[in-house]
Amino acid sequence: MIPTRSRPELLRRCLDSLAPSQGRLSFTAYVCDSSPADEEREAVREVCEAFPWAQLCPHDGSNVAGARNTGARAAREELLVDVDDDLILEPEAVDRLLERYREGEGRRVVAGSVSINGTWSTPIKKRRIGYGRPALEGEDPDFAIGALFLYPRSFALAWPWNERIDTADDIFMGALWRSHGVQILFAPDARAAHPDMPLSFDPNRLAETVEHQSWHIYTLLFDALIANPSLGRALAYEVLGFLASAKVYLRRPGLAIPFLRSWLRGHRRLLADRRYLQGLVREELPADGL
Prior knowledge:
Blueprint: E1 2-4, H1 8-25, E2 29-33, H2 38-49, E3 54-58, H3 64-74, E4 79-83, E5 88-89, H4 93-103, E6 108-116, E7 119-120, E8 124-126, E9 132-134, E10 148-152, H5 153-158, H6 169-179, E11 183-193, H7 206-209, H8 213-227, H9 231-249, H10 253-272, H11 274-282
């Protein structure tokens, strides 16, 4: 499943990189497009037509979660692989995800490794300040970057991606999956290159990322209060997490008020979504859903 929006050339490059593994595994690529303009939608359609194994799935969702849910509903396969449209996959990346999945048992998902700014991603363990560090060997991670991910379709149907948030969706799903006893496995040899980009705390991105603080605290408190309750961790996120973010934004006059508004907005949205979120945690798989 490939979420895309107004980026036909990146999509073409991504599909080109998937072609070797598609020749071996004979999968369908569900291209979930939300391009707003007619000419952009037409360009995406033309790219899909160049790959007979690509199926276009238009949708009107506003974020990646909407695209992934669209793809899960359209697919009929037992296993799904999320691939961001700006990735260039190594020739055997999908094969390696599948091999790692087959090595495991029980409820499980598998993350691949994505290169960003020269660093290969690994599963993440959250610290009490709300930000993460690489999980240690033998340590159960809290989440992994969702750009390259394999999971059963039954998971996606029972526990859909949260379309009410615009960022931190991989952190959210890590918390939701863990609440249902799902292991987050890692295939370090399932690799893909991502274009370099400024880090979240890069001064050039702070005006953008300050708005994402609402989803940052939303996902942290969803984990600690609803999905995997821990009052101590919730208090740590509220105090230590606030201070960790505040020291970046409050020292910049133009960002202090937007940060405080964003942080409060995250709390309000969590309260507004409480029943929906509790329902996700209570929802169980059908008997044949693994």
